[in-house]
Amino acid sequence: MDTKKLQLAFFIVLLLAVFVLVALLFEPFIAPMALAFMAAIVTRPVDAWFMKLTANRRTLSAILSVIFVLLVILVPLSILTQRIAVESFNFYVDVRDSGLGGFDQITQYLVQPIQAIFPAFNPDISGYIRTLADGFVNNARGIFQSTATIALSTFIAIVALFYMLRDGASFRKSIVELSPLADKYDNDIIDKVERAVNSVVRGSLF
Predict the structure, then answer these.
(1) Which pTM does this prediction carry?
(2) In Å, what is the CA distance from 185 to each residue of 40, 180, 190, 201?
């Protein structure tokens, strides 16, 4: 009996260790997979429209939906990120070469009237602006240094999105079959989760 308990304890410890190792192995992919899951829920109406357009060809419909997501989200986001990086660098150069740059009007129109009432008011505007400029540059540098990681995560999210759109119905059916709950409760839970994710993502985008 003691031997069986020891074997059971060893098996449980071994199973937990394997679970932890697998979790650590897949930890970098959790965020891209979650992003793909949310994108699949939000773009489901678009995918349904493509399904009708392609005569219920799931693979082609999923490809068109992924292309739609890339065009609508990633392309504008890439352009915006590029513009932010350029403007941040220009702002840093302007502050570095000319002190406050274009922010010297803050002293003239905001600080001086306050100093007329409170002479002791003397904020270090130049120091604040320089700190802000340094922060922009340091953050941009960190983003560029992690370009490879961002590209890999984006690729994983795109691939996951394709399979979630193409095989989403099969995934859902498998989850319902594996769940010990009644199918009605499983479907209700999945529907509520999808509505919640849809509402949160669309609200955040707006």
Answers:
(1) 0.62
(2) 22, 10, 9, 24
